[in-house]
Every structure is written in C-alpha cells, then in structure tokens.
Write a structure and sequence with these properties.
The protein is mainly α. The chain is 77% helix and 0% strand.
C-alpha cells in the first residue's frame, strides 16, 4: 500500500479478478433433469426447478461480474486520485524548495 489512502488498490484488483475467474468456472447451462423419476409430475417439477435455477444463476453471475468490474473501476479511481494528490504535494514541495 502506498500513499495516504488506506485502500490497497492491488488487493482490490486481485479480488475482482478472483471473482471473475471463479464466475467463469460456473457453467451457465448443462444442469440436467431427472427423466427417469417414475412420474411426469415429478419430472416436470424438477425441470421447472432447474430452469429457474439456471435463470437465477445467470442473473447472479451478471450481477457479480458487474460488481467485479465496479471494484476494478474503483481501484483505478483510487489509483488516479492518489497519483494526482502525490503530484500536487510534489509541486507544492518544489515551490517551497525554490523559494
């Protein structure tokens, strides 16, 4: 961690990347239904559950990816703000030294 901020920009970026990598490992589809359940009602209910689960999973993956992207954006903002403040301090010190 550098500068006056308590934010560890590198750690924020790494966390966001870990989230994105983990999400990439979760399949969007391919969850199977039980066709040999002995009852069409059970089979249809299970299919409905799996379809709803798959929809919710895709939605949550999109939300998590947006959060990870926002984390990376925040890290960039922290980095930029910190760099600007460091430059301002350096300019101020240069003015003091030149007097």
């Amino acid at each position: 961690m550098t500068g006056p901020f308590v934010f560890d920009v590198t750690a924020i970026r790494e966390s966001a990347q870990r989230i994105e990598y983990a999400l990439d490992e979760v399949p969007d589809s391919g969850y199977t239904t039980c066709t040999d359940s002995g009852s069409s009602l059970v089979s249809e209910t299970l299919k409905l559950f799996i379809d709803e689960f798959t929809k919710k999973l895709k939605s949550e993956k999109r939300n998590a990816k947006r959060i990870a992207e926002a984390m990376e954006g925040c890290a960039d903002d922290f980095d930029k703000t910190e760099s600007e403040q460091v430059h301002q301090v350096l300019r101020f010190l240069a003015i003091l030294v030149s007097r």
